[in-house]
Specification:
Spo0b-associated Gtp-binding Protein, Chain: A; GMP Synthetase, Chain A, domain 3; six-stranded mixed sheet; disordered C terminus; magnesium ion binding; GTP-binding; EC 3.6.5.-; GTP1_OBG_dom_sf; nucleotide-binding
Length: about 525
């Protein structure tokens, strides 16, 4: 089971917004209490925040799916639902957030820096908030929006002042253990260190961190050995210290060759990752000089290294020889770097979706395959909020789209009555039949919860029924008078089915009159 994880794939889901409520105030002696439905609560965001106490991404390796809480539904008596709680994910300093395609979303450096990776859905409005001078008692409420969801990749790049680099078994772990209180694993075989180790070093009044980067070999930039897994941890270091093993007995190995191999791998990695590492100060630590043969090799290569403008230190992690001089040299570089760098403040980064095509427009319309696709944040959000089982809510959506200018734009683009108009995301889009003849406005509403434009009622009012009954009796009188004059009776008026003549009423008017 791993104890150190520096890259994970994370699936995050923000909380859904709570639904609004359609409610009417009911109280004794107050028959016209009015709407009092409350709004739904907003869903919680998912926030990634830098925590100095966190050093690994292992928690997200075991639990890669994280979700914030949903907003609560509203209630009557103007009670709004509770907002969902934000989910805060703590990550180490130096975490890079990438999308699924590998593009950098944010580089989180500095304690407290945070990123709102997905935003919670907005809560739906209750009917109290939807009431207006024309729509005094709405019989509907808006649904809450679903929370955003996405998949991101978290990649940790250790934030250290000094990076110790070198071949396996060069003594890097022993050096960081001698300089600090870090206690990495130390053994006499290659690749003992499998994870970066951080140690805090104090030299005079300067305190800085040192990272022990796992051993590099030739071809590391191409993935050999530990390869890319740990080369990225040197990107943020203010200076690099080459730890060279002067006591190695491997054939073909010597301090100058080791230095050239490591520098070549750093250069190749910089080209692949787009990072320039050539400007980082270098120090050379010739290690294990407590061994007689190693001291002779150090004396032999010292002049060649200094000819390359490299500052050379002869050290022994075992006997602590030369460590004080090396630590003060590292502190001097760190102090100069900090003095030149601007102050880093914790920032809050909020992701916003890119603006749709057509700047300063709330929507765009595209014709494709005989259908008209309406794209835009507002139309898509309004469709999500609409309860399509409620005719009045659908009519309210039609009013909003009309005020936005969708109908006028469709007519200008050549849309014909009956064409399909598609609004919403691809997965849950809604298809409408384009009908520009339908009137807009709340003044055409029927009873609560109904909209005559959506589901027109064929039921006649009592007044209309009385008018049809009077027309039926008037025809009977006119028919009798026409027969009395020897003329044909006028045509029968059109009546509703429940007022139409029954079979026993189809009688001869002359016989009825004679009787």
């Amino acid at each position: 089971m791993p104890t150190f994880v520096d890259h994970v794939t994370l699936h995050v889901q923000a909380g859904n917004g709570g639904h609004g409520v359609a409610s009417v105030h009911r109280e004794k002696f107050k028959p016209l209490g009015g709407p009092d439905g409350g709004n739904g609560g907003h869903g919680g965001d998912v926030v990634i925040r830098v925590d100095p106490d966190v050093t690994t991404l292992i928690d997200y390796h075991h639990e890669p799916h994280r979700r914030a809480t949903n907003g609560a539904q509203g209630a009557g008596s103007n009670r709004s639902g509770a907002n969902g709680e934000d989910l805060v994910l703590s990550v180490p300093d130096g975490t890079v957030v990438r999308d699924e395609d590998g593009e950098v979303i944010a580089d989180l450096v500095g304690a407290g820096t945070e990123l709102v990776i997905v935003a919670g859905g907005r809560g739906g409005l209750g009917n109290a908030a939807l009431a207006s001078s024309k729509r005094k008692a709405p019989g509907f409420a808006l649904k809450g929006e679903p929370g955003e969801q996405r998949t991101v990749r978290l990649e940790l790049k250790v934030v250290a002042d000094i990076g110790l680099i070198g071949f396996p078994s060069a003594g890097k772990s022993s050096l960081i253990a001698a300089l600090s209180r870090a206690r990495p694993k130390i053994a006499d075989y290659p690749f003992t260190t499998l994870v970066p180790n951080l140690g805090v070093v104090r030299a005079g009044s300067t305190t800085f961190t040192v990272a022990d980067v796992p051993g590099l070999i030739e071809g590391a930039s191409d993935g050999r050995g530990l390869g890319h897994d740990f080369l990225r941890h040197v990107e943020r270091c203010a200076a690099l210290v080459h730890v060279i093993d002067c006591a190695t007995v491997e054939p073909g190995r010597d301090p100058l060759t080791d230095l050239d191999v490591i520098e070549n791998e750093l250069a190749r990695y910089g080209e692949l990752a787009g990072v320039d590492l050539s400007d980082r100060p270098r120090l050379v630590a010739l290690n294990k000089v407590d061994v007689p043969d190693a001291q002779q090799i150090a004396d032999f290569v010292r002049a060649d290294l200094r000819a390359r403008d490299l500052e050379v230190f002869e050290i022994s992690a075992a006997s602590h020889a030369g460590l004080k001089e090396l630590s003060f040299a590292m502190a001097e570089i760190v102090q100069a770097r900090r003095a030149a760098a601007p102050g880093v403040e914790a920032t809050r980064i909020v992701l916003r979706p890119p603006a749709p095509q057509g700047v300063d427009r709330d929507f765009t319309i595209v014709e494709q395959g005989g259908q008209w696709f309406v794209h835009g944040d507002k139309p898509t959000r309004w469709v999500r909020q609409t309860d399509f089982s409620n005719d009045e809510a659908v009519g309210f959506l039609a009013d909003r789209l009309n005020r936005l200018g969708v109908e006028q734009e469709l007519l200008a683009r050549g849309a014909e009555p009956g064409d399909d108009v598609v609004i919403g995301d691809v997965d849950d889009a809604v298809v409408f039949d384009f009908d520009p003849t339908i009137a807009a406005g709340a003044e055409v509403l029927g009873r609560r919860g109904e909209d005559l434009r959506i589901d027109p009622s064929t039921r006649r009012t009592n007044k209309e029924r009385r008018e049809q009954l009077a027309a039926k009796r008037a025809w009977e009188i006119e028919a009798r008078e026409a027969r009395a004059r020897g003329e044909q009776p006028p045509p029968k008026p059109e009546l509703d089915e429940d007022l139409a003549w029954s079979a026993d009423e189809e009688y001869d008017l002359d016989e009825e009159q004679s009787s």
